[in-house]
Automatic annotation (TrEMBL):
Upper classification of the organism: Bacteria, Pseudomonadati, Pseudomonadota, Gammaproteobacteria, Enterobacterales
Protein name in UniProt: Thioredoxin family protein
Domain of life of the source: Bacteria
Amino acid sequence: MVNKAKEVIFYHAGCPVCVSAENSVLSLIDPAVKVRIVHLGQESGS
């Protein structure tokens, strides 16, 4: 049995390498999976 995620979280710092990685990873994820992108420089520390 394969455990499929319903939501994934991608953390990044906003640098060009992170943005490139984000685009690459997003192209590999099943479109049915909800993706939350967390930019570490913009996310509050609550």
